[in-house]
Amino acid sequence: MSIFRFKQFAISQDRCAMKVGTDGVLLGAWAAGGTRILDVGTGTGLVALMMAQRFPEARVTAIDVDEGAVEQARENVAASPFADRVEVVWSDVQSFVGQTFDAIVCNPPYFANSLKCPDSRRTLARHSDSLTAADLAAAADRLLCSDGMLSVVLPTDVMAAFEAAVADKGFAVVRQCLVKTSNRRPAKRCLLTFCRSRATAETSVECLADGAGRSEWYSELTRDFYLW
User: Fold this and answer.
1) pLDDT tens for residues 130-162?
2) Is 24 helix (H, G, I), strand (E, B) or coil?
């Protein structure tokens, strides 16, 4: 599908290595926000636009290292109702210089030890060679305000390693949601929010689907976005 339509915007994705997927929708619908938000590795611009929709007072900066993705994200933003509040910048987060942010959101590359895809742009988007957990933790330390929050979506099998990397910069989990595809299966994804606070983490386990289709939780989480 070259165009994915949501209630308030549409995502063209024919020139992006990574397409609209459940991980991005989960993150965009769940992540902590604020008035200044940074989307790291924006791809199509999906998460940036979801955050702009959820937080009407926010100004969102979206960055990506893939020039083609940046061009397409800019087009998606320009065609949306949020064009005056979302800026797309061609940059990696390691060298990005800007204001401090209330929130950073990232659907990070996480296939650190898996076989590389022959498509170099897809490899860039999916593998951690270009953005390690330590890189993202260092960026969060540098770019977040004192009470700012970092939200990510990850496979559960890399969750512990990611938590350790951000803990080295003083961040701890304050909110965690383990996501199952169905009640009979173990959780394969986790949504995590980190900040410098040492508050007890708010934890939950949710499911994407039930016997009738989308679960009540997922339907409610995404009701302002999905058309159906």
Assistant:
1) 789 999 999 999 999 999 999 999 999 999 999
2) helix
